[in-house]
Amino acid sequence: MMKFGIGQPVTRLEDTRLVQGRGRFQDDQHLHGELYTVFVRSPYAHARIKSVDTAAATAAPGVVAVYTGADYAADGLGMPKANMPRKKMDGTPMFAPQRPAMMVDRVRYVGDTVAMVIAETLAQAKDAADLVDVDYEELPSVTSTAEAATPAQAPPSEPPPPAGVSLLARRWRPVSRHRARKHSRLGYIPFRNLRNILEAFCRKGEAFRNEAC
To answer: Has residue 105 been placed in a domain?
Structure first.
């Protein structure tokens, strides 16, 4: 087997301290006055948000604040941009719709963020998140890229891309169908349930107020 080859076992160096109870985790550290946040997420792949009622959650014990997509938009917070913006074959920019951190009027995948609950304890934040009442209108969803590229089947978005296509690029020299030795057609359907190894990065911060003496 080649060095650093695919399938080569990786020596683990962190197991000894973990099995001996000497692991250090973010949840083991506590700051004075720290708060906990739980997000309310969409159970639908595509739905319109008709209303979000946070009254019960706001009045729940230990709750400090409850924010929704409307609050996010009212504060004028920015949105993440495409990491690798590309261009289409005609030189025009690719269609890269911006997605806010919390949705205002529509959710586009299961787990899309709808509201954020901040409370004094994690249990209180979880309980209050269950009290956020979101009224959804479920809409059709498309998981096949072939269907998404069809104007009649493409899910609505604002503004809609031409024929539901975000980017079309060609990485080979075009050859006439009559001269090609083999013709291939590839269909791709992204699954909704995927298992991935996640590295959860966490940050804890403490706010300081400077006062003039």
So the answer is: yes
Give the integer Cα–Cα distance in Å for 146 and 182. Answer: 21
Higher pLDDT, 158 or 60: 60
User: Rounded to the nearest 5°, which phi and psi values hold at 147?
Assistant: -70, -40
Whole-angstrom distance, CA of residue 171 vs CA of residue 155: 27
Give the structural domain span for 128: 31-78+99-156
DSSP 8-state symbol, 130 = T
Give the count of domains, the chain.
1
Q: Cα separation of 195 and 163, whole Å? A: 30
Question: pLDDT by residue (tens digit) across 137-179?
Answer: 999 887 776 776 666 554 554 455 554 555 555 555 555 555 6
CATH number at residue 135: 3.90.1170.50
Query: Residue 34 is which amino acid?
Result: E
Whether the full predicted model's pTM is greater than 0.90, yes or no, is: no
Helix (H, G, I), strand (E, B) or coil at 80: coil
Helix (H) or strand (E) holding 30: none
